[in-house]
Amino acid sequence: MHAAFKRVKFRSRTLSLAKLGLLLFTFGCATTTPSKPQETTAQQRSAPAPTEQSNSAVIPQASISSLDALQRGEVPVTADSSPLKDIFFDFDRADLRADARETLKADADWLKAYPSARVEIEGHCDERGTTEYNLALGAKRAQAALEYLATLGVGSSRLSTVSYGSEVQVCQQHSDDCWQKNRRDRFVTKLNQTN
């Protein structure tokens, strides 16, 4: 009789847990209407996130690499809403211009606000020059950005580089304006797999 009592008691607990699960499911799945996204100014986009967000476990959504975008048939352009902005280079140069340093300072502030985010820095070149030369130049450009971000306090273990040389273009015309758009570093956020 004692064993029968234990079986009834066990079934009773199972039934109670099932009821509790059903209640949690029913009340936990309330529908909400998504709020309308607010437009942000350029200053708001470049400002670091509030401190309370930087301590939370939530990290920004990963973005896709230029190569992945190209394989999807998309133009590998950084969205205006992206918190990390592209930087641009002069012809045949890998040193950081003054405007690139300012952009990197804003990027560093954002990265400090989200310490669990990792970034891959893509180095790109215009179409002029050999494939080998442009791959080397793209690598130098990406490395220049990585080193500058490290001097601004972003841990270099969170940063990686890749060079696409002139293989992934955002502009296909043969003009100075177009070539300037292709001489860039692009920043791709990655989800931290160790968290």
Explain the overall architecture.
With 195 residues, this protein is of the alpha+beta class. The chain has a domain of 119 residues: 60s Ribosomal Protein L30, Chain: A (2-Layer Sandwich). The protein contains seven helices and four strands, in the order ααααβαβαβαβ. It has a four-stranded mixed β-sheet. The radius of gyration is 25 Å and the shape is globular. The N terminus is likely disordered.
Give the structure's gist in a few sentences.
This protein has 195 residues and is of the alpha+beta class. 44% of the residues lie in helices and 12% in strands. It contains seven helices and four strands; from the N terminus they run ααααβαβαβαβ.
Key phrases:
globular; 4 strands; 7 helices; about 45% helix; about 200 residues; 60s Ribosomal Protein L30, Chain: A; disordered N terminus; alpha+beta
What is the secondary structure topology, with strand pairs?
Blueprint: H1 2-28, H2 42-46, H3 51-54, H4 66-71, E1 87-88, H5 98-113, E2 118-124, H6 131-151, E3 159-165, H7 176-182, E4 184-190
Parallel strand pairs: 2-3
Antiparallel strand pairs: 1-4, 2-4
